[in-house]
Amino acid sequence: MTRDDLPAADDAVAALAAALAAQDVSALPMVRPAADAQADLTEIFAGMDGIVPAVTAGPIAYEATDDVAVATLTMDYPLGVDGWTYTTEARFRYAGDQWRVDWEPTIVHPDLTPQTRLRHTRQEAKRAPINDREGIAIVEEGAMYEVGLDKGAVDQAEWETAAADLAALLKVDAAAYTRKVLANGPKAYVVAATMLQAEIPATITTVPGVLVREISAIIGPGGSFAAPLLGSVGAPTAEMIAESEGTLTELDRVGLSGLQSRYDEQLRGVPGIRIDAVARKSAAGASASPVPETTLFQQDPSVGTGITLTLDRDLQSKAEEILSGQAGMAALVVLSVADGAVLAAAQSPAGGTYPHVTFGKYAPGSTFKAVSALAMLRSGMTPTSTVNCAPSLTVGSYTFGNYSGYPSSALGRIPLTTAFAQSCNTAFAAAASSITGEQLHAAAGSLGVGTDYDVGFTSNFGTVEPGNSIDRAASMIGQGQVTMSPLGMATVAASIAAGKTTLPWLVQGTQASPTAAPLSAAEAQGLRTMMEATVSSGTGRSLQGLMKGAKTGTAQWGETGKLQTSAWMIAYNDTYAVASFVEVGDSGGTTAAPLITALFR
């Protein structure tokens, strides 16, 4: 309560709280020079790495006999998991018709003295591994070694020769490394390469000034192994730091993409954080006895929790090896028929680290006839129903035709199974007249696609939303507005093979449940009949002995007059469901199928 003979100190206390949060008390009315208080505040926070508290003004008590007000301040630092909050007291004296701050270090923290300051230290948590299906780490934190030249330990006349010799031993660009060495300061440590201990040649000890320094790094199997799935780790962006509310600093490493990003909080663990009251530099030199350090806040580091994937390391490696020779974008996805587990999801080097294999959006071409066939079965057809495979079909203003080389023996009135196995476009496009867009979308859903699901990793299950009659006819053959990822088409194959709606999953403990109408046993059997005919007598004959059922596909894309063709193949046997995709190819049978053959033979 305010003394009757003095004005309230609320404004003065609020001004101090704001000034402390802004780290500038130089303009506040003070009992002693404000410049001294500002210098003291700057010294106190010099070792805090820019971390400052939010300050809230609390209750004010007024002393009965002196012109003194004592305010409670709450200091709230964005530190660690739970933050660091405590209260302090600030004294004000009423003099010269205003309240003046009676500055003391205890305003910042009760345990500070004129000889001590705050110091922040941070110990990064050990990042947890990402494991394969056998529980063996694919990527984990471990020791790496920087190998470079310590210029301060070498005579200037030897810098250039030493740099060239070290570069030759490490098999790095000698000219570029020498320029880097010469461009740095006379005492600089210039890193030439970062490598595993076993990779460091023993003969580097012959190079004057060589220095090997151990560092902590995220170590994987090397190269681009599953890079679009796993993602990368690095320093957080400024935006990430701002959004973290104090849990991240520029010193941290975080997941920036892929699984490393999706499960970053779990993998990263909790860093070790300490705030100590330590001697000021001037106090340490002037005092006869050292000022003891006092820990004011501590959060112990903890190792993150790893995740285990369904990936089959050998299958993934083989798929990547096969795709390494592809000039353009190509992908292979392998799912377990038993439960939809992702065993491999690989893409060619042209895809970079963007997850085209699981998130790409491509016209699926005739592989989508597996979905269309389900819609046709639900409309009352059977695998033996007769359809008309005409040489061409006009819908509205657009004329559909069959692919070049379509067998003339499979034209005319033929069974649905033959139309499917030989991939007759006109028969399927004609069926659009009796199948609505909603029915086609529902059929896609029963095969696991056309509906977004969060399956625990970056994925795209395609778009199936045909519009007008032309678009609906085009959608029946996987053109028009229909798009799919290689993962999505592998999902279709897995659902048919399993006889139920199957969704892929990659991270153990993270599986989604389908929301679409279930696939019936009769429907699944009908689809398998047609898929198996494709292998036995249709466009998928090259997979005989490897796969039981399949569907080829080609899709045109690009500008009118400059159209290019994508090649697809989806297939299954008792164990695996697979999708093969080549963005620029010839046909499913000649371009995409050989990738499956190479993978499983």
From TrEMBL:
Transmembrane annotation, as ranges: none
Domain NTF2-like N-terminal transpeptidase: 37-114
Family annotation (SUPFAM superfamilies): beta-lactamase/transpeptidase-like (SSF56601), Penicillin binding protein dimerisation domain (SSF56519)
Domain of life per record: Bacteria
Molecular function per GO: penicillin binding; peptidoglycan L,D-transpeptidase activity
Penicillin-binding protein transpeptidase domain: residues covered: 331-598
Subcellular location, principal: membrane
Example GO BP: cell wall organization
GO cellular component, one term: plasma membrane
Annotated keywords: Membrane
Localization in the cell: Membrane
Annotated InterPro entries: Beta-lactam/transpept (IPR050515), Beta-lactam/transpept-like (IPR012338), MecA_N (IPR007887), PBP_dimer (IPR005311), PBP_dimer_sf (IPR036138), PCN-bd_Tpept (IPR001460)
Record domain Penicillin-binding protein dimerisation: where: 123-279
Record family assignment: Belongs to the transpeptidase family.
Name of this chain's protein: Penicillin-binding protein
UniProt source species: Tessaracoccus lapidicaptus
Upper lineage: Bacteria, Bacillati, Actinomycetota, Actinomycetes, Propionibacteriales
